[in-house]
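Backbones bend. We report:
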Amino acid sequence: MKLYISIMILLFLAKSIIANDGILESYISEGLDNNLALKQKEFSFRKSIYELREARGKFLPSISIEGRYSRAGGGRTIEFPVGDLMNPVYDAINATRVQLGQQPFDFPVLENEVIPFLREKEQETKIRATQMVFQPALFYNQKIKSDLKAIREYDINIYKRQLIADIKTAYLNYLKLEQVKRHYTSTLYLLKENLRVSESLVENGKATKEIVYRAQTELSKIEQELEAARANSTQARYYFNHLLNRSLQDTIRVEENLALLDLGNEEADVYIESTIVNREELKQLKESIEVAIHAKGAAGSAFLPGIFVVGDYGYQGEEYNFSYDYDYWMVSGILQWNLFNGFQDHAKHQQAKMDEKRASLILQETEKLLTMQAQKSYDNLQVAAKARITSEERLKAASESFKIISKKYNEGLVSQIEFIDAHNALTGAEIGQILNQYDYYIYAAELERIAALWIFE
C-alpha cells in the first residue's frame, strides 16, 4: 500500500511539473506539436482507427447495385419440331373441311424451332444485400485490429515520452553550456586585466617577465575553453531546435528560475514498480500477446462454417424495361464450410501458439531489462545528487580561499602564481558546480522517462 501511495505522489508531482506554464514546458508542447517523426506515428495510429472501423463494418450488411448487359451468339441449342408436329394436323383439318364442302382454314405453315440457350442480348439490373449471420473469423479480426490500434497508440506515447526527455536534456545541456560560456567570458576579462597589470609591472621593473608568460598562458587556456564552450553551445542549440522542428539558428529563451522535479527521495523499489506498471513498452507486449491469442482463435474458427444471407431484387429481359412484368426477387441462404484444405488451418493455429509463447518470453525479458534500467538510472541520480552537494561545498571552500588569496595578493603578500592557482581552483569549482547541477537534472529527466513518471491523457 505504501509503495502504491508513493507511486501516486510521484505521478502527481511529475504531472504538475509538466503542466506548468514555464518556458521549458512551452517548448515541450511545441515539440509535441511539430516533431515530424511524431506526426508520422500519429498518421499510423489514425490509419489503425480506420482499419478497426473497416473490421467492424464487416458485421453490417453490404448493399450494392449490380448491372449486366450481354450480347451472345452460338452455344448449345434446343430443337423443337413444332412444324413437323402441327403442319400435318392443320392439313388433316382442312382436308376434312373440304370433304364436308366447307372452306379450309388459312393455317400458317410452321417451321421447326431452334432455341439457343444463350439469349442474343440480355440485361439484368438488381440491388443485392448481403448479411453475415455467422462468421467467427470476423470477430477475431475485429479483436486483432483493436489490439493493433492500442499498440500503435502506445507507440506514440513511447515516442512522446522519449521526445520530452530529449527536449528536457537538450534544453538543460544548452543552459549548462550557456552558463559555462558566460563564466569563461567573465573569467577572460579578469585574466586580461591580470595580463595588463603584469606587463605594467615588468615595464616598471617591479617584476620579471615570467609573470607575463604565466598570465598569457592562463589567458590562452581560458580563450580555448571559451571557444570550445561556444562551439558546444551552438551544437546544443541546433540539436534543440531540430527536436522542435524549428530553424536551427533560432534563438532559445533562457529560463532563469527553472523548476524541475527533484527526484531520488524515494526508495529504488518505487521507481522500479512505476516502471513495470506504466511503461508503454510492456503494455505493447501484452497487446502483442492478445494479438497472438486472437490469431490463434481465428485459425481455430476456420473449422466452423460461415453462414450468409443474400437478397436480390431487380429486372431481367432483352431490353431495359423496369416494369412489374420484368421484375424479380430472390433470397438465398449460403453456407460455406471448409472441410479440408491440406492442414493449412492447423498450421496457422500452431504458428499463432508459437507467437503467443514467444511474446510471453519477450515480455518477461523486457520486464527484467527495464527493472535493471530503472535501478541503474536511480543509482546514477543518487551519485549525481552527491556530486552536486560535493561541488557546492567545494565551490564554497574555493570561493573563501580565493577571497583570502586575492586580498593578500592586493597587499603584495602572495605571489602571482599563488593568486592564479587560487583563481584556477575557483574557476574549476564554479564550472564543476554548474556541470554537476545540470547533470543532476539531466539524470532526473532520464529517471522520469524510464520510470514513466507522467501519464499521457
Q: What stands out?
A: The two ends are 25 Å apart (CA to CA). The CA atoms of residues 78 and 115 lie 5 Å apart. Residues 136-203 form the longest helix (68 residues). Strands lie at 62-71, 77-80, 113-116, 121-134, 306-317, 327-336.
